[in-house]
Design goal:
Helix Hairpins; 265 residues; 0% strand
């Protein structure tokens, strides 16, 4: 029977790994900055396990992600910044503060009122965190993937009323941005910088449509990627089964197989 471990054991293991004399050389040399790439990777692996419904794998991936939190807390404790207990205290206070309808007698009429209170509390927290903040966009991380950041920027702007209240103007904006892309790429002299800028505007407008329809652009594109990949892999198998070389096939031939694959994938 394997040894049983608790959270306190994990914290002690982390301390031992960081021991300058008897710890692990790799763990000992890590810094806040060096760990960030691993943290992002672990978060994506958690997401992937969920998407694949690999729950035994999810248990392991969640452990890896938790270890990242423990690692950062150990680094912070070594520098006298904060401890794991401080992190637990902070998130617990935040949850209680942001859910007065659960942890106090405050009552909201509906989900939209709950969301409005949530955003109001977050705005208050941002102001307390940085009294010099001049914009509702100030604390949106620059390191977020572009689709996620676009969604967050738009959502944050909507909290102060800078947002369309109906779908038609959102769709009109997409057509407007597409027209501007076409103007740039069909100009007598194509300005690549201008094309790039207009393409960015078009992508941003599409994120806005996805948001207004209640979806998440990052998740939708991930699903679109998976669908295309599954179909293309099926196309490769079909072409191979017909004894053909993929590179030797014409586009019309590949399109014909693609249409067949779409019927079943």
């Amino acid at each position: 029977m394997s040894q049983s471990y608790s959270l306190s054991d994990l914290l002690k293991l982390m301390q031992q790994l960081r021991d300058p004399e008897n710890g692990c050389p790799w763990d000992s040399k890590q810094t806040f900055q060096s760990l960030t790439a691993y943290t992002i990777e672990e978060a994506y692996e958690v997401t992937d396990a969920i998407e694949q419904q690999d729950f035994p794998g999810l248990k392991s991936e969640l452990g890896d992600l938790l270890f990242q939190v423990v690692f950062y807390c150990q680094l912070a404790q070594e520098k006298g910044l904060f401890s794991f207990d401080d992190v637990v205290q902070t998130i617990s206070e935040k949850l209680v503060r942001r859910h007065p309808h659960v942890f106090s007698d405050q009552v909201f009429d509906d989900v939209s009122a709950v969301n409005a209170n949530w955003e109001a509390e977050k705005a208050k927290e941002r102001q307390e965190k940085d009294e010099k903040a001049t914009s509702v966009l100030d604390d949106i991380p620059l390191s977020l993937p572009a689709l996620m950041r676009a969604h967050k920027i738009q959502k944050r702007c909507a909290t102060v009323g800078f947002d369309w209240t109906s779908l038609p103007p959102v769709i009109e904006k997409i057509h407007e941005e597409l027209d501007e892309v076409m103007q740039e790429i069909t100009a007598d002299t194509v300005n690549q910088s201008a094309v790039e800028e207009e393409l960015g505007d078009l992508l941003f407008a599409n994120v806005n449509l996805v948001r207004h329809l209640g979806f998440n652009s990052e998740k939708i594109l991930q699903a679109g990627n998976r669908k295309f990949e599954n179909r293309f892999r099926a196309l490769e198998l079909q072409v191979k089964a017909e004894g053909k070389d993929l590179k030797a096939c014409s586009l019309d031939e590949l399109e014909s197989v693609w249409q067949q694959v779409k019927q079943i994938k």
